[in-house]
Structures are given as C-alpha cells and as structure tokens.
Write a structure and sequence with these properties.
Barwin-like endoglucanases, alpha+beta, 6-stranded mixed barrel
C-alpha cells in the first residue's frame, strides 16, 4: 500500500510540472501575434486614401449653438470659410474606437477623421505638422479635444500619417478647405438671438434713461424746495430781528423804510388821483375866486337912496349853509353893474350871530367882517 501511494504522488507532481512548462512555452508564441496586429493596423492606417472635400449637409446633432463640457461653454461657428489656426494636435484611438461621435456615426480609428471644438460638422481641413512638414486632409466629424488648450484631436490613422504617434502631440496648422460648410439654421437662430439681445439692450437703455431723468427731476425739485425753505427761514429770521431791533434816534431802519415804501406806494397813487378829482370838482370859476361861507341875501334898497345904483348885500351866518354857485354868480353879475358904495349891515333876525357884509365892485370883490 505504501508503494502504491508513493507512485500516485509522483505521477501528480510530474503532471503539474508538465503543465507549467507547457504554459511557459506558449507565451513567446503570442508575442508575434500582438506585434503583427499593431503592424497590420498601422499598415491599414497608412494605406487609407485621403478624403476628397465635397459638400455634405450639416449634421443635425453635431451643430448646437453652444454646448458645455466640464463646466466650460463652447460656441459653434456658423461657417468654416476663412478658418485658419495654429495650435497643438493630439490623437485618440483604441479607447474610443466604435463609440458614437457627436455627428452620429461610430468612431473609426482607421479613418482620416478629426474632432474640433467649434468648426461646423462636417468640415474638411488640411492639417500640417509644423515639426516635420507632413500634411493630411481629414474630415471633422466629432467634438473635442477638451484637455488644456489643444486645437484638434486626430484619429489614429491621421496621427500615423503625420508621424506623431510616439510623441502623442505636435504643433500643427489647420486650414479649412472648400466647399466650406455653412449652417443657415444656426445663422437664422443667431440673428434672431442678436435681435432679441439688441431689443433687450435698447429697453434697458431706455429704462436707464428714464430712471436718470426721473432722478434728475427729483433732485431738481428737492433743490428748489430746499432753496424756498431756506429763503422762508431767512425772511422769518429777518422779521424777528427787525422786531427786536432797537430804534435809533433820527434814523429809520432801512428795512422799515423799504417796507413802508412797498406798503404805501400803491395807496399813495390812489389817494393822489382821488385828490386831483376832488380838487377839479370843487374848484370855483375864475370870476368868483372868494368862496363865501354863508348864504347870500340881497337886501332891498333904502327909500332915500333909491336914486343911487347901489345894492346892499347881506351875507347870512355861516351856520345857515353855504351859498350856491348859481347865487354867487348872480351876486357877482349884479355887483358889476352897481356902484361900489359901502352898504351898512342890517340884522337878519333876532338871535343870529354877526354877519359878513360884502361890497361888490366892478372887476373886484372884497369881503370884510364886522
């Protein structure tokens, strides 16, 4: 039994050693397979013909107005015409092979294609390696690269044609080729957007102008109110100061004089007018310059003096009233025709005060009081 166990143990150990040796011997056989795959892929990439630029309709999904990647916003150009740029180029291959591109079709690393952040899709561009002078025409059908400030991301085949696979990046020049790609829908959308922005800016400007005008008006009104209030306070202060001002002998205050002039200027003019009217109305005629103060009574002549052309004129007391202008004129007219002989005074009645006797002569009048 012991002999049998040892036999089977030696058999198992031998089998395990044989398997290990067999596996080790197979590793070198796989290396030529991997190396042949890389070489075949490179040969395939180098054998691909350059695409011929031609007109193609713009991609529906690859040309948004703007898009955001990693928190940064990018803006798509509405035309590729005149585009020329110098920058850093990188390449992508195995990790993205077969994945969907921004334009829709899956990515093929063995095609001469590229990814760009802002050019319209599709766009044909010529990429020139500035380090070795090689150039290639590629078709932009994807978005990228979004690392640092790289300008373009080339496919594996395009990088192989430019001899930049080993270093990974290179300085290149990118030039868009005709026929250029245009995005009329994007142009229309942006035109509408610019119009809306212009209208919004105009409304904002008008609103700002209205606010500034309203603010200026309010400031002006506030300034006017402050000035009016200040003038009113000054006037009140001047009034109070004038009320407490001590009078000076022989000199009137200038403010008082001005106030009197302002207060009395209009009434004085009115009083002068009224006084002139009263003077004209009350002025006697030129023929009777003396105004009698009483009523004039013509006395009858004495019998013995009937032959004399004299009239006695007795003037009544001033208390009986003034002589009317018509009576006065009659007396004057009679006096011119009669002689100037003095007339004796005669009492008018009992209890009356003394009277004035007037003798009227031709061209003159004289009044004498007893």
């Amino acid at each position: 039994m012991i002999v049998m166990v040892n036999f089977w143990s030696r058999a198992l150990i031998g089998a395990s050693l044989a398997g290990a040796l067999a596996s080790c011997s197979s590793v070198p056989d796989q290396q030529p397979v991997a190396s042949s795959s890389v070489e075949a892929a490179l040969a395939t990439a180098l054998a691909v013909d350059e695409p011929v630029p031609q007109f193609e309709p713009p991609s529906r999904s690859g040309n948004p107005d703007t898009y955001v990647v990693f928190g940064r916003r990018y803006r798509v150009k509405d035309s590729s015409e005149g585009y020329r740029e110098t920058g850093t180029a990188s390449w992508y291959g195995w990790d993205f092979h077969g994945r969907k591109t921004s334009s829709g079709p899956p990515f093929n690393m063995f095609e001469l294609s590229a990814a760009h952040k802002s050019l319209p899709i599709p766009t044909y561009v010529r990429v020139t390696n500035l380090e070795n002078g090689r150039s290639i025409v590629v078709k932009v059908n994807d978005r990228g690269p979004f690392i640092d400030d790289r300008a373009i991301d080339l496919s594996y085949a395009a990088a192989a044609r430019l001899d930049m696979l080993e270093q990974g990046t290179a300085q290149v020049e990118i030039v868009a080729l005709a026929p250029y790609q245009y995005l009329p829908d994007l142009v229309a959308r942006r035109s509408e957007q610019r119009e809306r922005q212009a209208n919004l800016a105009l409304r904002r400007e008008e609103a700002q102008e209205r606010r500034l005008a309203s603010l200026a008006l309010r400031r002006e009104e506030a300034q006017e109110r402050r000035l009016a209030s200040l003038a009113l306070r000054r006037e009140r202060a001047a009034t109070i100061e004038f009320a407490h001002e001590a009078p000076v002998a022989g000199r009137a205050s200038s403010r008082l004089a001005m106030a009197n002039v302002i207060r009395n200027s209009a009434p004085l003019a009115k009083d002068k007018a009224k006084f002139a009217e009263r003077t004209v109305a009350a002025a006697p005629s030129a023929k009777a310059k003396v105004k009698p103060t009483g009523r004039v009574v013509v006395a009858k002549p004495v019998a013995k003096d009937k032959g004399k052309a004299n009239d006695r004129v007795v003037v009544a007391s001033a208390g009986k009233g003034r002589m009317k202008s018509s009576e006065h004129a009659e007396v004057v007219a009679k006096g011119k025709a009669k002689s100037s002989e003095p007339v004796a005074a005669a009492p008018v009645g009992k209890g009356h005060p003394p009277v004035r006797v007037a003798s009227v002569r031709s061209g003159r009048s004289r009044i004498a009081a007893d």
